[in-house]
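Researcher: We're teaching a course module on how sequence relates to structure. For the next exercise, students receive a sequence and then see the predicted structure as tokens, so they can try to spot secondary structure elements on their own. Here is the exercise chain.
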Amino acid sequence: MKALSIVALIFAAISIFVPVVGIFIAMGCSVLALITFCKQPTLSGITFGINIISTAFLSPTLALTASDMHNTGEDGVSMYLFYVGFHVVLMLIAFITLFIFKKKKKQNP
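Model: And here is the predicted structure for the students to work with:
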């Protein structure tokens, strides 16, 4: 699990610099971080943080697409919130599963 979380962290850092496909690489890294969160919460949490920050603030492709959609009369904000919300929801699911597994581990020593 440690290797998988390190791979997710490395690809999350690389996804910042990839112009168009970087958003989808970050989404895949968030799924990998969700899988490894119970065993490696620190590395997976850092991966979630990098993905949220890169998608919300450092993705010019997403910002340009949302701006172009808004200029043509479509709702570009909902697309932007979908991509950012994807990472946030997966992180919340990871925290919930971590707390559930910790509680079960305390009950069954």
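Model: If you want an answer key for the exercise: The chain has five helices and no strands. Residues 49 and 87 are 9 Å apart (CA to CA).
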